[in-house]
Amino acid sequence: MKPPLLTFVGAFLAALVLAGATGARTSSFQTANCNVATAQPSASLTRDGALNYAYVATEEGYQWGGGCWNNDDIDSSYGDPVGVSWPQGEGGDCSGLTFKTWRESLDTGNAGHYYWAPLRNVHGPYTAQSFKYGYGAPNGTVLKSAAGAMDGFASDTHVGMIFFRGATGGDDIVEAKCEYCGTDTWYRTYRSDSSYGGIRRLGWTG
Amino acid sequence: MDGLTRGLAIVAAAVSGAVGAGVQPHAVRAISADASSTSLPRSCLRLTPLRHGRIEAVIRRGRLLRSVTLRRVGGSRIYGCDSTGARDEGRLWCNVETARLRSGRVTDPRLGLLCTTRRHQHVASAWITPMRRTRVLVVLDGRRRDRYRVVGTLPVRVAVTHGIAYDRASAVFVFAEYGARGRLVRKARMVARVAG
Questions:
Q1: Does B4 touch chain A (CB under 8 A)?
Q2: Is the pLDDT of residue B88 over 90?
Q3: What distance in Å separates the CA atoms of residue B172 and residue B176, rounded to the nearest whole number?
Q4: What does each C-alpha distance from B43 to A97, A181, B68, B96, B173 come to in angstroms?
Q5: I need a surface site. Which of A84, A171, B30, B143 has the fewest CB within 10 A?
Q6: Cα(B158)–Cα(B66) distance, rounded to whole angstroms?
Q7: Whole-structure pTM over 0.90, yes or no?
Q8: Are A121 and A86 in contact (CB under 8 A)?
Q9: Residue ranges making up the domain that contains B162
Q10: How many domains does chain B have?
Q11: Which contacts qualify for B33-41: CB closer than 8 Å, 24 or more apart?
C-alpha cells in the first residue's frame, strides 16, 4: 500500500492536469492585450479590405484555437507548446484567421458582415473541416478553378486564403500555418491538391 | 476551499453512484468492414477520405447525439460525424471532425459547436479517450448523466448542452470512468476549444 503522502501528491498533481489548470501562466499575450469587445456590424466586405486585414495578421504568430493579434510584426509567443490552447499566445489558427478575415458572425445562421478588431480575442465556431464543407450561412464552396483573391482552400485539417492568384498552378496563400511557421503568405499548390476543396465567403460587396 | 478543490468536489458529488439510477444509457454498435461495405454509414464515410481498406466504426445513438467515429484499421487518424436530428442547413450531419491519434489517444478532443437541438439549444460534442480499464463513461450534463459504453479502442464521442461558453468557442466536460463491476477508474474535467 502506497504511503498516504505519496498518494496525495500524485492525486493532487493529476487533478491539476485533469482540471486544465492554467494558473502557471499568469500573463499570456491574450490576457495582457486582448479584449472581448462586441463585433461591429459592417455593411461592406471587400476582397481588398479582407486582404489588408489578413496582411496585418502576418508575422504576428500562431496560436492553436487562437484569434487575437496586434500589428507590430513580432510573434510575441514564438515557441509556445504546440497543439494546445492554454498558452493563450499571440495569433490565430488557420480557421480563426479565416473567421475573422471573412467578418463572420458567431451565429452560424447569420451571413452578415461583422468586423472583429485584430485584438479582439475570438476564434469562431468553425474548423478547417467546417469551412471545407461550407458549414454555416456565410460559407460556401467553389470550384477550385474559379477561386480568386480571398477565396480559400480547405482540407480536413487546414484552411488558407488566396492572397494572390498564381499563373503557373500555385497561389500565394495567406494562412496561419503552425507555431514555428507563424502566420504569413507562402506559395502553395493547394489548388491542385485533391485533399483541398475550394471555399468562398458568401456576400462579398466588392 | 479554492476553485480547484471546489471543482473536484462537484465532480465527486455529481457522478458518485452514477452507474445506476438516473443515468441515461445510449445504444452503441461497432462495425469492422471493407470501405465499400454498405454496413458502414455511407453518408458519413463520404465526408472522409476513407475509400479503401478495412474500416472500423463505432456508431452511437444517445439522448443528444447520434455519432459515428471511423478509422482505417491501423490508421493514425480518426474521423467523425455528429447528428442531433435537427436538420440545420438541411444537413444530416451537423458537425464533422477529425483527429490524430498518438499512442491510441486523441491529441485534441475536436470540440464541435455547430450542432443544435430541435429547440435550438447549442450542443457541444467532443472525443474522450477512456483509460484502458474503462468500460463505461458517465458524462454530467446539468442535472442529467449520460452513460456511454466503451467499445473497441476508438475514443468515445460525447455531447453536452451545459458548460458551453459559445462566444469563447469552448466547453467543459465533466465525467467519470468506471471499469469492470462498476469500479471507479477516474473522475475528470476536460476543457475543450474549437481549433484547427
A1: yes
A2: no
A3: 13
A4: 30, 36, 10, 11, 28
A5: B143
A6: 10
A7: no
A8: no
A9: 3-193
A10: 1
A11: B33/B57, B35/B72, B40/B70, B41/B68, B41/B81
ipTM of this complex: 0.88
Q: Collect all residues of chain A within an 8 Å Cβ-Cβ radius of residue B105.
A: none
For A143-192, give the secondary structure using H, E and C: CHHHCCCCCEEECCCCEEEEEECCCCCCEEEEEEEECCCEEEEEEECHHH
**Subunit contact A18:B189, Cβ cutoff 8 A:** yes
Identify all chain A residues contacting B193, using CB atoms and an 8 Å cutoff: 65, 85, 123
* Residue B2 forms contact with A (CB below 8 Å): no
- Residue B163 gets the label, from left (phi > 0), alpha (psi -120 to 50) or beta, of left
Task: Decide if B97 and A127 are in contact by the 8 Å CB cutoff.
Answer: yes
On average, the pLDDT of chain B sits at 90
Residues of A in contact with B190 (CB under 8 A): 18, 20
> Please, what's the largest Cα pairwise distance for chain A?
72
User: What is the tally of structural domains in chain A?
Assistant: 1
Cα first-last separation, chain A:
72
The range of the structural domain enclosing residue A56 comes to: 29-201
Domain membership of residue A9 (yes or no) is no
Cα dist. B132→A13, A17, A34, B5 in Å? 20, 18, 40, 26
* HSE (side-chain half, CA atoms, 13 Å) at B125: 30
A16, part of any domain: no
Only one residue has cell 494558473, namely: A23
SS3 for A52? helix
Tens of pLDDT, residues A68-96: 999 999 999 999 999 999 999 999 999 99
